[in-house]
Amino acid sequence: MRILKILTALAVPALLSAPAVNAAENKYPEKPIRLIIGSAAGSGPDIISRQLADRLYESWKQRVVVDARPGAAGAISAELTLASAADGYTWMMLTSQLFVASQVLADIKFDLQRDLRSAALIGVTPFVLLSNSQLPVKSLKELIDLAKKQPGKLRYGSAGTGASEHLSGVLLNHLTGTNMLHVPYKGVAQSIADALANEVQMTYAVLPAALPHIQGGRLRPLGVTTAKRAALIPDVPAIGEVVPGYAMNAWYSIVAKNGTPAPVLAAMSSEIVKVMREPAFGERMKALGIEMVAGDGAVLDAWRREENKRIVELVKISGAKETK
Q1: Does 230 have pLDDT greater than 50?
Q2: Domains of the chain: residue spans and CATH
Q3: Can you give the pTM of this predicted structure?
Q4: What is the DSSP string of 169-229?
Q5: Segment 19-46, tens digit of pLDDT
């Protein structure tokens, strides 16, 4: 996977000298921390954030309060984060969703690269294209054939306009010459609920959110969006096996507002990375379908630069960018 190549090539420097980090750790945190996520309850970011928050409480004896603010493909969460004090007591989960939205939505007023400082890269996971039982297909090829016979008739849900799930569907349409209609929701949980109710025939969802519905037989997985199959559902093909050149992934990271004091940011990064590298925590993430990275701020900085280039190119290819 591309991420492994990046990480092996990257020499990760210490964020700060040990004395500075230790000084910050002696004082930080002195009160509860707010972790803002741009997704609804039951989503991948929500599941992962709560696991991380529970584990950090064991170390710090301070609550990490997960504040779900879905809408605008994560842009609302970024606006709230940037309106907060840059003191290390407001974090944000930065995901692939917001990276896509920042390139697709016309009214984004912030700059992710300029306005947010990196703390830690958690890991990556695929999106899964799911269909309900009413859709008469059992494979991705059958779906593509049906979509070509019924242009504009099939509907897929996503976590919102400009979200990664939205772009996943746009890219599939673009590469297959189909016209499956996009239906945006405020979060993946709503999209899944409407797929189950046949308001839409399909939805894209990150593997942690999709897995219970796959295991329960309620939704059928037609393909994963990453370049290779997912270890937890190895029988489900990668979309790229059927549609050459197709690849999308979801990723999760922790950031803070630019201007956060460097020692506080270093203390944040140090503790988060330590927790993520614990075998027990890693196993919990693996069970959710997360390929752990557990990289510090330098790793996340490199990842964000590479991902920005990739998303800009994908949006250009797909033609999904809004115009003002």
Answers
A1: yes
A2: 2-125+249-318 (3.40.190.150), 127-242 (3.40.190.10)
A3: 0.80
A4: HHHHHHHHT--PEEEE-SSHHHHHHHHHTTSSSEEEEEHHHHHHHHHTTSSEEEEESSSS-
A5: 444 444 468 999 999 999 998 887 878 9
